[in-house]
Amino acid sequence: MSTAPASASGSASAAPEAGAPAATAVTAPAQPNEKPVNLLAPSFDGVAPVAPAAAASTPAVRIDGVSKRFGSGPVVLDDVSLDIAPGEFVCLLGASGCGKSTLLNLIAGLDKPSAGRIDTPAGGSAVMFQESALMPWLTARRNVELALRLRGVPRSERGEKALSLLDAVNLADAADKRPHELSGGMRQRVALARALAQDRPVLLMDEPFAALDAITRDLLHEELERVWRATGRTIVFVTHNVREAARLGQRVVLMGSRPGRIVQEWRIAKTTGRRIESPEVAALSVEITDQLRKEIRRNAA
Prior knowledge:
By secondary structure, the chain is α/β, with parallel strands linked by helices. It folds into two domains: 23-124 and 200-300, Rossmann fold (3-Layer(aba) Sandwich); 134-199, no CATH class. It has helices at 100-108, 140-151, 155-168, 184-197, 214-231, 242-248, 279-300; strands at residues 23-27, 61-69, 75-84, 89-94, 115-119, 125-128, 202-206, 234-239, 251-256, 261-268. α2 crosses α3 (155-168) and α6 crosses α7 (279-300). The protein is globular.
């Protein structure tokens, strides 16, 4: 098993030396009895979230030998194992039907694995879906306040906290507008603020920007990265968009299909200054796409 060197703790590692590769591919173990290497230390490049990272030996999410079958149907996930460090941004990537969303639902506790186990923080996870699913009769502020209410925040504090969360996603000026008055990108910002209002240590995102136009999606990539760095949330982001994964993730985990399993992962050493059109994002996208095509051809054979 080959991997980039990990830091001894979950704290930020130093920036890579000049000429160092922007990403390092990590393949699944070739030998079943090979002792796993501790890959938990996130590969920050000197700009870590403000929240202190936990020790590398304690993952925020541990997926251990998880398999999933619905009824008597085929196996959807087969022996999936993955450790995600506190404060890490991991993108799950794969072709449609590879089990990405199924795995996310298992992490969220919305379903149970057929085999194996998943360990998550006691504080649970917040989930953001492709659809914003806002209450249409409530304003943006009231939608965020609803999450605060369910969390037990006193009524007297909800308005100010909701406005602060909307401001965090640059939407404070639309706080009193209802969903039908907002664009698709603005509704997704409200959904993100609502997810943050739950104050969960893990944020699970299931293709939240898939239905948006390219320009809006790029702007929300920047908003999400800024929020992630400011809050130190652990983020698991599901996508089938290779460039999106290369743009956002510290780690990109590629899943194969029939059944779903982890095929390969890439660790990005430089996570600042990336844009969708950056040369390093383009280069990584080409490498990931090549491996993805191999998986698609294998499944079609």
